[in-house]
Automatic annotation (TrEMBL):
The keyword Membrane applies. The lineage of its organism: Bacteria, Bacillati, Bacillota, Bacilli, Bacillales. This is Uncharacterized protein. The chain crosses the membrane at residues 6-28, 105-123, 129-149, 269-286, 306-328, 398-415, 510-531, 660-680. Keywords: Membrane, Transmembrane, Transmembrane helix.
């Protein structure tokens, strides 16, 4: 009854807040409508726009007004800002469109979550299940935002591919880069048109070099940066004829090929990973249905689900679900938009580390700067392009260790409390009976429980075991009456004494402390393992990024005035995995190019990347850049076939990892929560059954 009242209270509060927001919205609209500026603006709008607004116009206006309301609401303000930040990393919308796209994603996400949570709460109101639903809601929220933002990113890539084709067509007609981009932008879709017009403004500006640098700062895609850069170079230094035709058109072809490969990779991974996250989270919602089904068909399973082992198994399954979800998210964090969002996240570790007691503890655990362990951790963080420092990493490890220990210890105490409550209040079943109790038998079992509980509460404070046994027998005899036989009294007394022993044994034991310490140790190393797992996943994409570097170099080496430093700058703009070491190399390049590139080889020891850097190193003073990379053109067909094979292998490897991780929670649910307990209960019943047969006289 308390849960029902709580549920109805929550629903009532939610509806009340909705109506309050609606009233506030109406008040703000009326105040705005009464202002002079609004009336003037409305007059102009009425002259331009038709009186009858279409459904699409009403929807757009609704999104714009909703954005204003959400921005003024405390909790919704941060939620909207989070979605807007994710969109801004992959697209440079104008303000009007940015608000519309932000509210689209916000309404879709909140609507799906609200309907899903409401249905689940109406189906099952178990407190543990509700706690799992809350956590699953937070998890699904991030997944839905990633899904909708990813759609925007994919749409931009596909539009860019068509834009390149149109630029190629109009370049054949005009022979001028800026005019071709302008004409192509006019026939492109909205997102691509925005960027085409911006690049046209860059190329026609009074100082295009500065405008190009400004565009590099806000361009949401590395492909757009490369397109703007190659267009600027051709406009400044002119196009020239090469073996395959125009240098500019050849560069566009290579860039279009990279975009198409990226689209194919995303589509293939989306197809292979589709549903895996849902499959990993599905066991959260199926624990209760499985429990209800098992209890309905196998009544003896009540002891498992209501006991300590059942509760602990449920917690283990929940931990497996969360871990699987996190691993699946890590496998999909190698895209450019997600990298940028990760790098710009709020660094809460820095704020905690600024607290002196926390810094004192962390500094005692961090390895020394000149030790082997410090070098390994530094290399690991560099390989994953992690925004963490070693101190922040150790802070995460310490906090997760403490949280794991406290959560497990609290869970142990709660499990003991549940076990005691079951002993005192659960119906006392006859061990010689199988199957589900009839209503009469259940009432009798509850009466026995009430009788036993009175005796237990009366004698539990007696420290002497012998005297306690005498008190139990006396109390049982008094309740049984004069007609009770000696066997019945002994049997009832043994049952009460067994319950007393069970209550006495329900305390926090030393081996439970050992388990808690073990789990805390796992929690201490878990952030390190997650970074190592991320490094392994990123290694799969390293070869792909090196191949993309080769495409960029093949485009640039045809330009006579290009230098090694310029190529490194282009590589840094196009990089995701190798971005951080390339940034360090560029900062140190003016102090000595060869020394900076030698350090780059040490910071990024991936063999194919090192070979590319060695070629650039040779091209610093000894030979021209085109000669250092002459095989990129002569063996282009071979490299294309090799790259296709590598793409297929990387995608298949990721898919196999994803399927294995995604189905682990389902296997854990079926076997740990149903199959193994069912076998165990069946064996116990069979043992009891054979014992009864052997005791038959």
């Amino acid at each position: 009854m308390n849960l029902n009242v709580l549920l109805y209270t929550i629903i009532g509060i939610s509806l009340g807040l909705f109506f309050v927001l609606l009233i506030v919205f109406q008040i703000l609209r009326r105040r705005q409508g009464g202002s002079a500026a609004y009336q003037v603006n409305k007059g102009y709008t009425d002259l331009i726009e038709p009186k009858q607004k279409t459904t699409r116009q009403r929807l757009v206006n609704f999104f714009q007004k909703s954005y204003v309301i959400f921005s003024r609401t405390p909790l919704l303000e941060s939620y909207t800002a989070k979605i807007r930040k994710r969109l801004s990393t992959i697209h440079s919308y104008d303000e009007f469109t940015m608000r519309k796209e932000t509210m689209k994603i916000a309404y879709l996400t909140l609507g799906i979550l609200f309907v899903g949570v409401l249905l689940l709460v109406l189906i099952n109101r178990d407190p543990v299940f509700l706690a799992m639903v809350v956590v699953a809601t937070v998890v699904l929220n991030g997944m839905l935002i990633d899904t909708f933002v990813g759609r925007v990113e994919d749409r931009l890539l596909k539009q860019l591919s068509h834009l390149m084709t149109d630029v190629r067509h109009y370049y054949h007609q005009h022979g001028m880069v800026e005019e071709a981009i302008y004409e192509a932008g006019q026939v492109s879709k909205y997102e691509a048109q925005l960027h085409a017009e911006r690049i046209y403004e860059v190329l026609t500006a009074n100082d295009p070099q500065d405008e190009l640098e400004n565009y590099y700062e806000v361009a949401p895609s590395r492909f757009l940066k490369a397109f703007a850069g190659i267009s600027f170079l051709v406009k400044e230094y002119g196009d020239k004829k090469i073996n395959n035709g125009s240098m500019y058109l050849n560069g566009l072809s290579r860039l279009t090929q990279e975009i198409n490969l990226e689209i194919l990779r995303r589509d293939r991974l989306r197809y292979l990973f589709s549903g895996l996250t849902i499959i990993a989270l599905a066991p959260v919602f199926f624990t209760k249905p499985i429990e209800v089904w098992a209890r309905g068909h196998f009544p003896s399973m009540d002891d498992f689900y209501a006991g300590k082992i059942g509760f602990f198994t449920k917690m283990v399954i929940f931990a497996v679900i969360l871990l699987s979800y996190v691993l699946l998210r890590k496998m999909q964090e190698n895209d450019e938009g997600k990298y940028a969002a990760k790098a710009n996240r709020i660094k809460w570790e820095q704020r905690v580390y600024e607290w002196k007691p926390a810094a004192w503890v962390v500094d005692r655990l961090v390895p020394g700067q000149h030790t082997k362990q410090h070098f390994k951790l530094t290399r690991l963080l560099k390989d994953t392009s992690s925004p963490l420092t070693i101190e922040w990493l150790y802070l995460q490890r310490i906090l997760l260790c403490l949280a794991s220990f406290l959560i497990l210890v609290s869970t142990m105490f709660y499990i003991h409390h549940v076990a005691k409550q079951n002993v005192l209040y659960a119906p006392t079943k006859n061990t010689t009976l199988f199957g589900q109790l009839s209503p009469e038998e259940e009432k009798k079992a509850e009466a026995i429980t009430v009788s036993d509980r009175k005796i237990i509460l009366a004698v539990k404070d007696e420290p002497d075991p012998k005297k306690r046994e005498e008190l139990v027998r006396a109390a049982v005899k008094a309740q049984a009456g004069r007609d009770a036989t000696k066997d019945v009294i002994n049997k009832d007394a043994a049952r009460v004494l067994e319950k007393l022993d069970t209550l006495e044994n329900e305390y926090f034991k030393w081996w439970e402390l050992v388990i808690a310490v073990g789990v805390a140790t796992v929690g201490y190393y878990l952030p390190l393992w997650m970074i190592e797992f991320r490094r392994r996943m990123r290694e799969m994409d390293m070869q792909n990024e090196v191949d993309q570097f080769h495409t960029i170099i093949a485009m640039l080496c045809e330009i006579e005035r290009i230098s090694v430093e310029n190529i490194l700058e282009w590589m840094e703009r196009f990089a995701v995995v190798f971005r951080q070491p390339l940034q360090i190399c560029l900062m140190d390049y003016e102090a000595g190019g060869e020394k900076a590139m030698e350090q780059l080889k040490e910071d990024a020891p991936f063999v194919p990347f090192v070979r590319t850097v060695e070629r650039l190193l040779v091209a610093v003073e000894k030979i021209p850049i085109r000669q250092a990379f002459d095989d990129l053109e002569t063996e282009r067909v071979y490299y294309q076939e090799q790259r296709k094979e590598q793409y297929e292998r990387i995608i298949n490897e990721k898919a196999s990892w994803g399927k294995m991780i995604g189905f682990v929670p389902m296997y854990a649910l079926v076997f740990l929560y149903l199959v193994i307990p069912l076998i165990w209960m069946s064996m116990n019943q069979m043992s009891t059954y054979f014992t009864q047969i052997t005791t038959i006289q």
